[in-house]
Amino acid sequence: ARERCQGSSGPASASPLASAGPSHWKELKATCGGSQQSPINIDRHRLRRDGRLGDILFEGYDQAPPGKWRLTNDGHTGTLQGDPAAEHINISGGGLPGTYRALQLHFHWGSLVGNGSEHTLDGRQFPMELHIVHINVNYRTLGEAKGHPNGLAVLGFFFTV
Fold first, then answer.
1. Could you say which of 45, 76, 106, 131 is catalytic?
2. In Å, how far from its chain's centre is CA 89?
3. N or C terminus: fewer CB in 10 A for the chain?
4. C-alpha to C-alpha distance for 24 and 89, rounded to whole angstroms
5. Which segments carry the region annotation Disordered (predicted)?
6. How far is the C-alpha of 112 from the C-alpha of 107, rounded, in Å?
7. 111 with 95: CB under 8 angstroms?
8. 139 catalytic residue (yes or no)
9. Boundaries of CATH 3.10.200.10 in the chain?
10. Which of these, 64, 50, 42, lies nearest to 93 by C-alpha position?
11. Helix residue ranges per DSSP H, the chain
């Protein structure tokens, strides 16, 4: 089983340029030195298409979601939280081991002095990144889903200004 990087003994930063950035996380906590964790750099020169995965299927993405969604700002990001029982926005296929329903979306943005995307493309950060977090329909809560390697599926989108 993969060990998860949770908590550290000091302040960490997602900025690749920071002294406590991702390349230094392993110094804060040994389990944070893995290669399969966030943030990641998508290196287009090393990508290989796997046709066996098939297309990602989007269900309900072409309609306004029914029900109430809650918008919050915690001073770090804006989050739009959906009803966890709603089953109107789903993804499947694309190598996913089942169906995942949209639970929330949030943004990572920068400032006048730095870009804000969590991840990078060919080493480049972007002004903003949107994450749409989906929960495996086999799990009832975000907490339960986080405890399983197939619990969450997150779509990420870079923005330019």
1. 76
2. 17
3. N
4. 37
5. 1-39
6. 16
7. no
8. yes
9. 41-159
10. 50
11. 25-28, 142-146
Task: Note whether 30 and 57 are within 8 A (CB).
Answer: no
Instruction: Catalytic residue, from 100, 106, 131, 139: name it.
Output: 139
Q: Both tokens of residue 37?
A: 């964790």
Whole-prediction pTM: 0.78
Tell me the C-alpha distance between 29 and 37, whole Å. Answer: 14
Q: How many residues appear in the chain?
A: 161
The 3-state DSSP class for residue 13 equals coil
- Tens digits of residue pLDDT in 71-130: 999 888 899 998 766 778 999 999 999 999 999 999 998 887 777 899 999 999 999 999
CATH class of 41-159: alpha beta
Band (3; pLDDT cuts 50, 70, 90): very low
Strand 152-159 with 128-136, pairing: antiparallel
